[in-house]
Design goal:
Layout lengths: L1 H18 L14 H4 L32 H49 L3 H12 L5 H17 L9 H19 L4 H16 L6 H32 L6 E6 L3 H12 L4 E7 L6 H10 L3 E6 L3 H4 L5 E5 L2 E2 L5 E4 L2 H10 L4 E4 L23 H4 L6 H6 L24 E4 L6 E4 L2 E3 L4 H10 L2 H6 L2
Parallel strand pairs: 1-2, 1-4, 2-3, 4-7, 7-9
Antiparallel strand pairs: 5-6, 6-8, 9-10
Helix pairs in contact: 4-5, 4-6, 5-7, 5-8, 6-7, 7-8, 8-9
Length: 460
């Protein structure tokens, strides 16, 4: 019965195979029982995978086996051209957008400059013009003129309703400062004066009414000018005059107001000495000092900076001024001062620096570029070439004439106003608190900030 059953199944499978002639059976199943050879959808051995044969590309005549077909190269070249064209379109759009942005920026800049001029006090506008044209030069002159302009601004100030005088005045003080910095960069000493003014405004909040507060601020400004600048110069002049003896040959560079006053006082005291004034372009500030000393009957010698090494052998001491003295003892002064001091050090001549303490700053600078000020390059191309006799007979023009439109100055010209003199080239600093070595500058700064040396010396 078992054989007859298997026989019937074989017949049915043969009939099914005849009905489906294209069906193939795996060779690995040959010789196995029919139950395993029966196709079943649930059996993983009989699952079929539809594999489509990819059409092989037709090889072109003369084409390498590894090379791509010709139609693929043409399509790639077309894609590259489309990409390049799209890139050009994007670049042109970005250029147009940049031009429109530049126009907007220029318009905003013009509106900002116009608002700076219109919203400023007339005294601030006049001061900015004097800064810009060079009518006011020198650290003390610029600082005093700035403080007087701020006095006029404070006199005309009116506190708005629902505003506190101290807070509102400090906010109203920022635009004039920004305007003056746009006209000419402020020195570090002027920054100290502005900080003192802000301290006065901050302390004025204790006053009961507006007029009293304004009067206290103006009195504080006048006291700063009298004590920290004018009285300080008088003390420095007396100290510097004591260092001059009969027969001295003193070298100075450019023009310093306090050094000039030392020479005047020493001449009035009857001391016999000679002054060698070293000068350089483009400002030739030493010519104005030469004219003033010549009128006082002081014997003078005028030399340019390249000849300083030749005349240094006749000098007994060097006196210079300073724009700023840093906390590490370095001196920021008129460009060319470092050359004079280094030459004096090489010849073993003492170098005395005359400077007020309000020019001391708690900063360190190791090069001549960080805190420097760049002047107009056209000044180097348009230096006045008038004879020396004419400059002695009449005052020297403070600002050189503007160059012609055809005299284009190249952009590579760099006109720096100051240079940095290292501490090793200065022997003594003459201040209103005494004669100190340059290494004691941080001590003075610490005393001013911590113990109120200003009040101790000048009162409050």
């Amino acid at each position: 019965s078992t054989q007859s059953t298997w026989g019937k199944r074989r017949e049915k499978m043969a009939e099914a195979a005849a009905a489906k002639p294209n069906q193939k059976r795996p060779d690995s199943l040959k010789g196995r029982p029919e139950a395993l050879q029966r196709p079943d959808s649930k059996n993983v051995l009989f699952k079929k995978e539809d594999k489509r044969e990819e059409a092989l590309p037709v090889k072109q005549k003369g084409e390498r086996p590894d090379s791509k077909p010709q139609h693929d190269k043409q399509s790639k070249d077309k894609k590259d051209k489309d990409k390049a064209k799209a890139k050009d379109v994007k670049e042109s759009e970005a250029t147009l957008a940049g031009q429109e942005l530049n126009k907007k920026d220029k318009r905003k800049l013009r509106e900002r400059e116009k608002s700076l001029h219109l919203d400023q006090h007339p005294a601030i506008i006049k001061l900015g013009y004097d800064y810009r044209t060079g009518r006011i030069r020198g650290g003390n002159a610029r600082c005093i003129a700035m403080l007087h302009a701020f006095k006029d601004l404070i006199r005309d100030y009116k506190t708005p309703q629902d505003k506190i005088l101290a807070r509102d005045m400090l906010q109203k003080l920022n635009p004039p400062i920004t305007y003056l910095v746009a006209c000419r960069k402020m020195s570090a000493s002027m920054g100290n004066a502005i900080n003192h003014l802000k301290g006065l405004i901050h302390r004025s909040g204790e006053a009961q009414d507006e007029e009293t507060a304004k009067r206290e601020i103006i009195e504080g400004i006048d006291r700063f000018i009298d004590e920290r600048i004018i009285a300080a110069d008088e003390v420095i002049v007396s100290g510097g005059m004591s260092r001059i003896t009969d027969g001295d040959v003193i070298m100075t560079y450019a023009r310093s107001h306090v050094v000039e006053q030392i020479f005047f006082s020493a001449s009035q005291a009857g001391k016999k000495f000679e002054v060698i004034i070293v000068d350089s372009k483009p400002l030739f500030e030493g010519r104005e000092m030469l004219r003033r000393l010549f009128q006082r009957g002081i014997k003078c010698t005028y030399a340019l900076l390249p000849s300083v090494y030749n005349v240094m052998c006749e000098v007994t001491k060097v006196m210079i001024g300073a724009s700023t003295i840093l906390s590490n003892g370095s001196i920021l002064a008129r460009a060319g001062t470092a050359v004079v001091t280094m030459t004096a050090k090489d010849h073993r001549k003492p170098v005395l620096c005359c400077c007020e303490t309000y020019k001391f700053v708690d900063k360190v600078c190791l090069n001549s570029l960080t805190m420097n000020e760049e002047a107009d390059p056209a000044m180097l191309a348009s230096c006045p070439h008038e004879p020396l006799e004419a400059s002695i007979a009449q005052p020297v023009c403070q600002s050189p004439p503007a160059p012609a439109a055809s005299d284009a100055v190249p952009h590579e010209v760099l006109n720096l106003l100051y240079d940095l003199t290292p501490i090793d080239y200065v022997d003594m600093v003459i201040t209103e608190v005494g004669m100190i070595p340059p290494t004691s500058v941080p001590v003075i700064l610490r005393e001013y900030h911590c113990t109120g040396l200003e009040d101790a010396f000048f009162g409050d």
